[in-house]
Design goal:
Strand order of the largest sheet: 1-2-3-5-4
Largest sheet: 5 strands, antiparallel
CATH architecture of the largest domain: Alpha-Beta Complex
Oligomer: single chain
Helix content: 40-55%
Number of strands: 11
CATH class of the largest domain: Alpha Beta
CATH superfamily of the largest domain: Aminoglycoside phosphotransferase (APH), C-terminal lobe
Order of helices and strands: HEEEHEEHEEHHEEEEHHHH
Shape: globular
Mean pLDDT: 96
CATH topology of the largest domain: Aminoglycoside 3'-phosphotransferase, Chain: A, domain 2
Bound molecules: adenosine-5'-diphosphate
Structural class: alpha+beta
């Protein structure tokens, strides 16, 4: 529960007394609450980890950046802060509902709008961020395959080897990774990605508006977000059809879906352990023998 002094601290930020704070379930990193004032509801995530304040600041930057495109909505952040040993992020509360197929269609179109929003020429981001609770390096590269190998696959492969979740012989060499990625990746334009688009990271509001939450943004190949939407499900065929109408699918799409899912599977292997090993092993054997 939120202590009464913590609630008082938030009330001061909001300039309005807090009537109640209800726990919100569903996150795997922080505690979350819906804060009620007499006129509004807010969402707050609280975490005591050492890196939590940095995590919340990068989350705010991601949400603000998505919002600034006007392509798709993200909750407006009110404040990021520290109260005693707790870090917190306070934002607009979005009341969720089960999406209709029309709303999923609109979501697909808006995600495509986000992905076609003009950005710079390089892949990466202005700062590193987090994927789940793991650090995600966003060092800039002019070449997509280099970015994907050096900032995505290799750091997770090395971590998996260090945690003894993969053996040294199972980790492909840099040259194999690069060579195979260059083979499967087309000429790619950087796009602003959500970066961690599983079904728990979007909300369709009671007004039927799609919102992106909990992003791990960077400039990358737009198909990376699609690969994540397809990894664990929760995105309808209407969503995918509406997206594909805006951004058609190119050759070797299925192979790239696998290679982009490999990153997320490696992240899951490193975060949650061995149950993800068989999928990782299969993809490594198929694409990077
Ligand atoms: P974590 O970073 O701990 O994984 P999440 O950002 O995934 O936490 O959020 C935890 C829960 O709160 C999820 O069920 C999510 O749907 C919900 N949630 C996240 N942001 C909001 C928001 N702005 N308004 C309402 N619910 C939200």
């Amino acid at each position: 529960m939120l202590s009464s002094s913590f609630k008082e601290h938030i009330a001061q930020i909001l300039g309005s007394p807090i009537i109640k704070a209800d726990p919100v379930s569903g996150g795997d990193i922080s505690r979350a609450y819906c804060i009620h004032t007499s006129t509004h509801r807010y969402f707050v995530k609280v975490n005591e980890r050492e890196n939590a304040s940095k995590m919340f600041l990068t989350e705010k930057l991601g949400l603000d950046t998505i919002n600034r495109t006007n392509a798709i909505k993200a909750p407006e952040v009110v404040s990021c802060g520290q109260y005693h040993t707790s870090s917190f992020i306070l934002m607009e509360f979005i009341e969720p509902k089960n999406p209709t197929s029309k709303e999923m269609e609109a979501f697909g179109t808006q995600l495509a709008d986000l992905h076609t929003f003009p950005v710079g020429e390089s892949f990466g981001w202005k700062q590193d961020n987090y994927i789940g609770s793991l650090a995600q390096s966003n060092k800039n590269h002019p070449d997509w395959a280099y970015f994907y190998v050096y900032e995505r696959l290799l750091p997770q492969l090395v971590m998996a080897r260090e945690k003894e979740l993969l053996s040294s012989y199972e980790v492909p060499s840099e040259s194999i990774l690069l060579n195979r990625c260059q083979h499967f990746f087309p000429e790619v334009q950087p796009a602003l990605l959500h970066g961690d688009l599983w079904s728990g990271n979007y909300i369709i509001s009671t007004q039927g508006i799609p919102y992106l939450i909990d992003p791990a943004v960077y400039y990358g190949h737009h198909e990376v977000d699609l690969a994540m939407t397809r990894l664990f499900g929760g995105f309808s065929s209407k969503f995918h059809a509406a997206y594909a109408e805006q951004i058609p699918i190119g050759p070797l799409y299925n192979e790239r879906m696998d290679i982009y899912q490999l990153y997320y599977l490696l992240v899951h292997l490193n975060l949650f352990g061995r149950s993800y090993y068989p999928s990782v092993k299969r993809l490594l054997k198929t694409y990077f023998p």
